[in-house]
């Protein structure tokens, strides 16, 4: 096992393999004819073949033999003597490797700063040191150190003067984060600016509490943003300050009655008081993508409602107008009818008819996807669903609904519902009349006992007359129980135009 480490022969493995193959090929027939007994009684003349294989292996081993390691006497290190390592004045210094220079500079840098005065003393020493053949180890180190000091003293003196200026210019400024309350000192202008610096704010306009912010700020705590604009805050300050001006002129009993009158609240709103606030409210609504006409009508209705109204205690014009506008928006957006799909489906079951829901909307808002979600919700509540593929215009619409149906059946297999299929797809291909397909699907659902029919329609814009006419025909002919408009924020006012 250990011959590879003991012997230096590299051809042993090859020799063993060659002998094995040669012996097997030469005596194969005898082994097959005589069997095991032939091996005991037979004689094998293999000496000549073995010697031939040995010679071949030795020749190949010489060709592939590894390079012999050099002895110490043959290496370059043995040729270096103490004399060749000493540098004299008359000789040029030998080139050194850059890595060695860096190591020497790091190691000797501290010693150069401590003992700079030793370099002038070295000039007085005789230069006959190079004539000696042998020097002690301490003398060699001292000589090399002195030469190192001489070479680096001049470069160090040249680079000393510009260093302080460079360091001043390279200062990295700290990052200042918004809402971090870390720039309080920078914003603190309470002290007078030195040398009359320009841009300093007057002391009467400075609010130290507002500039410093929360001094008890917890680390890692995020402060909520205030959505109130500065203009609204200024308006509130003006409204609060104006009633106090006439009361300051009065004194004695009149001032007391004025204060009590202000607490009770007897100021009535006028159109002149509300106009600035309503103008800002209208601009804010327009900035939030509300149509200009709608914003103007809304502000006008709020003004008519509040004109002549007495303000409450400790209230301002801005807060009063904002509260009235909020109430108006809630009244407009509140639905006029209560939509309870599950209750309506159960009511349709009692009349033995399917509950029909039609999905409409512009292109790509997710009508088919939301139809599949509502199908899953209805199946979870125990209702069977029939999907009517009435989008005969868009390529791939029927295949999309077929995929949704297959996924829903995998989630709710018929075995889990007594062998009844909870969702099916009713489709007639492309190019057909959508209203006719919806009518056939509703009739099929009534005969088969489905609880809900979900009608998928093609996406369309309000300016597409043929598709809008087809949608109107589908609604008029089939009279669905619920029409759902699927939209998103990007649809905008086109949603209103399409519903109209």
TrEMBL record:
Residues 225-237 have a biased composition (Acidic residues). GO terms for molecular function: GTP binding; GTPase activity; signal recognition particle binding. Gene3D superfamilies: 3.30.450.60, P-loop containing nucleotide triphosphate hydrolases, Signal recognition particle SRP54, nucleotide-binding domain. Residues 86-139, 152-252 are annotated as: Disordered. Residues 180-194 have a biased composition (Polar residues). SMART domains: AAA, SRP54, SRP54_N. Its main location: endoplasmic reticulum. It is a peripheral membrane protein. Residues 86-96, 130-139, 152-169, 212-224 have a biased composition (Basic and acidic residues). Residues 354-500 form the SRP54-type proteins GTP-binding domain. InterPro entries: AAA+_ATPase (IPR003593), Longin-like_dom_sf (IPR011012), P-loop_NTPase (IPR027417), Sig_recog_particle_rcpt_asu_N (IPR007222), Signal_recog_particl_SRP54_hlx (IPR013822), SRP/SRP_N (IPR036225), SRP54_GTPase_dom (IPR000897), SRP54_N_sf (IPR042101). Belongs to the GTP-binding SRP family. This is SRPRA protein.
């Amino acid at each position: 096992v250990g011959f590879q480490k003991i012997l230096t022969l590299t051809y042993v493995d090859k020799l063993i393999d060659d002998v094995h193959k040669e012996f097997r090929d030469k005596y194969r027939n005898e082994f097959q004819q005589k069997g095991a007994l032939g091996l005991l009684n037979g004689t094998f003349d293999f000496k000549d073949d073995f010697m031939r294989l040995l010679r071949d292996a030795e020749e190949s081993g010489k060709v592939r033999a590894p390079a012999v390691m050099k002895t110490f006497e043959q290496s370059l290190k043995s040729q270096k003597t103490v004399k060749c390592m000493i540098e004299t004045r008359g000789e040029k210094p030998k080139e050194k490797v850059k890595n060695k220079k860096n190591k020497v500079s790091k190691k000797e840098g501290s010693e150069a700063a401590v003992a700079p005065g030793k370099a002038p003393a070295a000039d007085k020493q005789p230069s006959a040191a190079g004539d000696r053949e042998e020097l002690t180890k301490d003398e060699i180190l001292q000589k090399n150190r002195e030469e190192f000091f001489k070479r680096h003293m001049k470069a160090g003196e040249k680079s000393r003067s510009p260093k302080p200026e460079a360091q001043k210019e390279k200062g990295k400024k700290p990052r200042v984060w918004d809402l971090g309350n870390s720039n309080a000192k920078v914003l603190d202008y309470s002290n007078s600016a030195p040398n009359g610096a320009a841009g300093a704010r007057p002391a009467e306009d400075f609010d130290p509490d507002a500039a410093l912010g929360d001094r008890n700020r917890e680390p890692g705590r995020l402060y909520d943003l205030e959505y109130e604009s500065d203009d609204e805050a200024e308006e509130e300050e003006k409204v609060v300050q104006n009633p106090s001006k006439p009361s300051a002129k009065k004194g004695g009993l009149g001032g007391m009655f004025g204060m009590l009158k202000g607490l009770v609240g007897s100021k009535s709103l006028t159109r002149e008081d509300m106009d600035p606030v309503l103008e800002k409210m209208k601009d804010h609504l327009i900035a939030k993508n509300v149509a200009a006409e709608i914003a103007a009508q809304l502000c006008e209705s709020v003004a008519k409602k509040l004109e002549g109204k007495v303000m409450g205690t400790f209230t301002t014009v801005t807060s009063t107008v904002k509260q009235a506008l909020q109430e108006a928006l809630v009244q407009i957006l509140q639905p006029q009818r209560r939509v309870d799909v599950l209750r309506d489906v159960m009511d349709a079951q009692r009349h033995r008819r399917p509950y029909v829901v039609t999905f409409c909307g512009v292109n790509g808002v997710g009508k088919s996807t939301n139809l599949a979600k509502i199908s899953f919700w209805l199946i979870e509540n125990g209702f069977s669903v029939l999907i009517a593929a009435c989008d005969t215009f868009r390529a791939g619409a029927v295949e999309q609904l077929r995929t949704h149906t297959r996924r829903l059946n995998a989630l709710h297999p018929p075995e889990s519902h007594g062998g009844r299929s909870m969702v099916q797809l009713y489709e007639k291909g492309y190019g057909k009349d959508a209203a006719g397909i919806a009518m056939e699907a509703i009739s099929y659902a009534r005969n088969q006992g489905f609880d809900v029919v979900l009608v998928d329609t093609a996406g369309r814009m309000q300016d597409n007359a043929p598709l809008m006419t087809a949608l109107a025909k589908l609604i008029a002919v089939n009279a669905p129980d619920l029409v759902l408009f699927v939209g998103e924020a990007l649809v905008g006012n086109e949603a209103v135009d399409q519903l109209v």
